[in-house]
Structure formats: structure tokens, C-alpha cells
Amino acid sequence: MRHLVFGLVMALLLSSSSALASQSSTMAFVTDSATIPGTLLLVNVASGQSPVPVSVGSAPFGVAVLPDGSRVYVSNRGFGSCRTSSNGTISVIYADGTLKTTIPVQKMPMGVAAGPDGRVYVANNCSHSLSVINTANEMVDMTVSLMKYGSLSPRGVAANPIATMPYVYVTNRGSDDLAVVNTNDWSVVRITGIGNDPFGVAVAKDGKTIYVALEGDGKLAVVNAITLLVDARIDVGPFGSNTGPTGVAVGRDGRVYVTNTESNSVWVVDLTKNPVTSVSKGVGAKPVGVAVSPDGSRVYVANSMSASLSVISTSDGRVLDPIELPGSTPFAFGNYVWGPTAIPVAIDIKPGSNQNTINLGSHGVTPVAILSSSVFNAPVLVNPATVTLAGAPVQLKGDGVTAVVEERDVNGDGFVDLVVHVQTDAMVVPQGETAVVLEGKTWTGDDIRGEGTVRIVPGK
Ligand SMILES: [Ca+2]
Ligand SMILES: [Ca+2]
Predict the structure, then answer these.
(1) Ligand 2: distance of its center to the CA of 457 in Å?
(2) Separation CA 183–CA 131 (nearest Å)
(3) Which residues, 6+ apart, have CB-to-CB distance to 404 below 8 Å?
(4) What is the pLDDT at residue 229?
(5) Measuring CA to CA, which residue among 250, 252, 455, 207 is closest to residue 344?
(6) 347 CA distance to ligand 1 middle (Å)
(7) Buried b / exposed e across 380-393, counting CB within 10 Å, b at 16+?
């Protein structure tokens, strides 16, 4: 009987696992504090499949995902006040939804962040401390007292992504400062007077700028990570009002997204523009968690009072159809979205032909256009010699290094496209109609990826 029950449980686990994403999908890991115990929702954001619930601890709040996507760390904040609450925990969940372990930390853990150093950092609000988890053995290696330095009631935490900048940044609501923790020697430097009630924090991809949501001021603080000076405080509320900025995320293009819980909006800060902000209205009620997909194409916003994820397109700022999260109170505070990092590009195989018929025996080349858009200038960005289609390299000039390219607007949209020529007989494809993948790199080393369809006819 016990074996039968065990078998049934395993069958259920396996069937729910197979419903999950493959590693190539973008996943959102959303904390839901509406249930007891709390739930982590595994949301395949592209598939339209129902979110898969996984039980975690009490009142889950923060989320961090390891850089390789293998595990998710959830802070279980617990109920009650600092006076009444007991120590909180971190649930460690494998990407397939199974629980690996539960790690005890201190009182009321809120923000969680994964560093480039294999550690996970936890801000314990009621203990005024930072727990440091070694992800190799899932043990707390170190607990840094922030109170010792005068920092009180930490909430948000972010790690500098650059390995040579060994710093973790903690927002402290009780003392209105940003604590800069050196992860080599665990010393702490405080940036005092940063503003009122700092909450969410994020670091730019190059590690040089820190962004802090000032919930008490309606502003975003822009902090220079080298000088530790506050460069600017930017209004992120309608007409300069304060509508409670909470979460912050940085896109791969450098734009910063700030959730405003009281005006149901996301403010987009582009420091290269003047004025620097724009707004995405029409997200759900009381948004808190915000994260950008690793490919840079989408912003996901967790609406804590309308049980949904809003989806914003980064290319044009449009709010797309939301993803419903039935019956939940999603906070998802932190960097809760993980997925492939390649920049998605649109391609046109054999421009001018819809059939894309290819004769593998032709010993010629097949033209492929990488299409440009308002945010992606293919002829400028793409290193054409790195491009492959279905594994086949591009045609090179006589020097054996430089790709043969054309720059023309193949689809008449006003954006000049990049046309390369792949060696047809090197394509690895079966006969008939088949999906093929284009891969390559930008001159700055980012991966690009596009998909198309070809119809292979027998060669002679
Ligand atoms: Ca075509
Ligand atoms: Ca074009």
C-alpha cells in the first residue's frame, strides 16, 4: 500500500514536472502569500500553460534565481510583527519545482539576491542583518550585523554583477540609508541620507550604477557605485507626486523600471533622454515585483492585488495581455525571471520568397536577412561573420575573414536590414518543411537568435 501511494505521488510529481518548461523557456517564479503555507508559482511566460504551484514557507515574499537557472531561493517572511515573529526561512526549489531544502535565517527575511560569487544574500528586516548562503552546501556561511553599523530594518538587496566588484547593496528603511557590504572582508560602508524609506534596489549590467526606489519620496535614487555618491533623485510619480515606488529592475539596454504601488503604474527611466521618465499605465493593482527577461525583450510586473503578471514590451513600451495567476497575492520581490539570454531577432530566409525552398544539392548560398527595428539596427550591431543558419556558416570574402553582406531594407519598413549568405550544402536539416535557427553574436559579444522555416527539396 505504501509503495502504491509512493508510486502515485511520484507519478503526480513526474506529470507536473513534464508540464513545466524546458530549459530554453523563460520562467517567472512568483511568490504567492495568499495560501497557507505559501506558494511559489512556476510560470512559463510564453507557453500559456497554467502556473504550477509549489508549497514553500509562510508568507513568501522575495525571490532570487541562480545565474544558471538551476535553483530558486524564496524568502518566507512569516506573519506578525517584529516583536511577535520567530525566525524566518529560505526555501530552495529546483527549477522543476521540487523542494531541495529549507534554510533557517533570521527574523522576517525580505529581499533575496544571487551574487556572481555563488552566494545568495538575504535581508532580515527584524534582525537588522544580512544572511549569506553558500549555495554549494546550502548553509548560512556568515551573518553580517547591519545594526552594528547603524543600518536598521533592511528590505531590499542586490549584488553587483561584476566579479571584480565584490559588493552587495542593502536598502534600510529604519535608518534611510544604503549599506554597501564588502563580500571579501564583510566590512560595511553606509550611504546615509539616501532618501526616505528605500525599498527595491538594482544594479546596472556594467556594475557602475545602483538604482534605489525611495518609497517615502516618490523618487528613484541614482547612485554611482564607484564614488558612492547619489548622482540624482528622479521623480517617478504622476506630476511629481509620491505613489509609492517599491520594485526596481534594469533592462539590458540600461532603462530602469520602477513599480508604483499606489498608482498602478510602472515608470520607465531612461537617463539618456530628457525628460528622463515615461510611464506604462494599465498594469494591475498594487504592483510590487518587477523583472526584465534575460533576453531584454519583456518586463514582467507582479500585481499583488489583482493576481496577475503584467507584460510590457521593452521595444515600444506597450502593455501586452496579462498572465492570470488564479487566486493569488503575488509579490515576487526581486529578480524573479530567468531564461535564455540571446537577443531575439526577426529573420527572413530568402527575402522576397515565402516558400523558402532550398535545394541542398545546389552548392550555392542562401540569402538570409536579419531584420532591423526601432531598437535593433542589424547592420550596425551584428558581427556577420559569426552568423550561422541551421549550423551552416556564412559566405566569406577572399580574405577568409570578412562576411559577404548586403545592407538593404528587404521588407520596406524603413529600417535597413542586414543580409548574409549561408553555405547551403552545410545546412543540417531533414527534407520537407522544417524549422531552422539562426545564431550569431553582436560586436559587443551578446548572443542573437532567430527562427524561420525552410522547405528542403531533394538535391541532385
Ligand atoms: Ca522568405
Ligand atoms: Ca527592414
Answers:
(1) 28
(2) 12
(3) 394, 395, 396, 397, 420, 421
(4) 97
(5) 252
(6) 8
(7) ebbebbbbbbbebe
Q: Which ligand is closest in space to the CA of residue 371?
A: 2
Closest ligand by atom to 372 CA: 2
Residues 6 or more apart in contact with residue 155 via CB below 8 angstroms: 110, 111, 123, 125, 171, 172, 173, 198, 199
C-alpha cell at 301: 510586473
Residue 427 near residue 390 (C-beta atoms within 8 A): yes
Distance, in Å, from the CA atom of 422 to the CA atom of 368, rounded to the nearest integer, reads: 7
* pLDDT tens for each residue of 232-284: 999 998 888 999 999 999 998 899 999 999 999 999 999 998 788 888 888 99
Q: How far is the CA of 353 from the centre of ligand 1 (A)?
A: 4
**What is the pLDDT at residue 409?**
98
pLDDT value of residue 24? 64
Distance 375 CA to ligand 2 centre (A): 12
C-alpha 407 – ligand 1 centre gap (Å): 16
Ligand 2 centre to CA of 368 (Å) is 12
Between the CA of 317 and the centroid of ligand 2 the distance, in Å, is 20
Q: Which domains does the chain have, with CATH numbers?
A: 13-339 (2.130.10.10), 344-457 (2.60.40)
Question: Considering every ligand atom, which ligand is closest to the CA of 350?
Answer: 1
User: Cβ atoms within 10 A of the Cβ of 38, count?
Assistant: 26
Whole-number Å distance, alpha carbon 406 to ligand 2 midpoint, is: 12
How much distance in Å is there from the Cα of 370 to the middle of ligand 2? 9
| C-alpha cell read off for 223 | 547612485
Q: Which residues surround ligand 1, an ion (CB under 5 A)?
A: 348, 350, 353, 356
Ligand nearest 416 Cα, by number? 2
In the reported structure, the alpha carbon of residue 361 is separated from the centroid of ligand 2 by a whole-number distance in angstroms of: 30
